[in-house]
Amino acid sequence: MRLKRHLNETKLNINQIDILDKIILTLEKECSLFLRELKRCDGLLYRGVNSSNKDIFKKRVRNDRYPKDMMKELHDDVDDMFWSIHGWRARSEGSFVSGSTWTVKTYGKPFLYFPIGKYEYLWSQKIDDLHEELQNNVDAEEMYEPDEIYHDDWIGIFGENGDGTWSYNGNNTGESDKDDAIQWVMNNFEDDFDSYVDEDNLDWYPEMSLEAYAEERRGKIKDNIQEIIEGYQKTYLKNAIDSKNEIMFRCKEYYLVNTIYEESLSTIIIKGRKMKQQKLPFKRK
Question: Which of 114, 120, 200, 203 is deepest in the core (most CB within 10 A)?
């Protein structure tokens, strides 16, 4: 009776109620696995797509998705990490959804999302958008820049009197401070001069080359990215939806449903009702 009362009070018109019935039948038939899990959640999923006025339509997932915003090299490396850690290439094989319409509006008009048949998903409690995280907080694109991008940082650490040692005519003084190096020369080569050390014979040897430092920095960025990806989960859809964060779904096809049916579908699915047992206030065709 509660569902009947809901449909009587809904803002949907007669034609839309008839369409809703067909949508329910379609979702029951093709998305039963997902609906079973969705019943344990407190909200629905949304996906942003190019503007459409359709009530429901099916889309096939591309397995060769080209990155819209992320640098291609970074996209491929991140995809390889997802494959190595989670068993599938989430960035190129997945469809991106969220429990928040605000999150998906960036990509287009929000529609309700229902994967067809078997599916799996990945999400992170900490990361709301992986691309933004890698771009703004990890500086991931630095991995593909030339070594010179790290030159100033390298000089700050391994420049003269930093991490390294002075050498005098090929003899390592073991000193990083120039004045200490001169004193070392005077102590060890006192017979070679009276009181003057020719500083032109002093050479600075950094503890690490620019090339090695650049490679080390890239390695730290890569380790950071891997740690982030290791933190992704493949269960607890309820928590994923509640987080409002980006969720990557893997399935062959999915349905998108106009959000005008959101309230009705939420009442029918989320409230824990078994749709086949509902007595609708109209005959199913």
Answer: 114
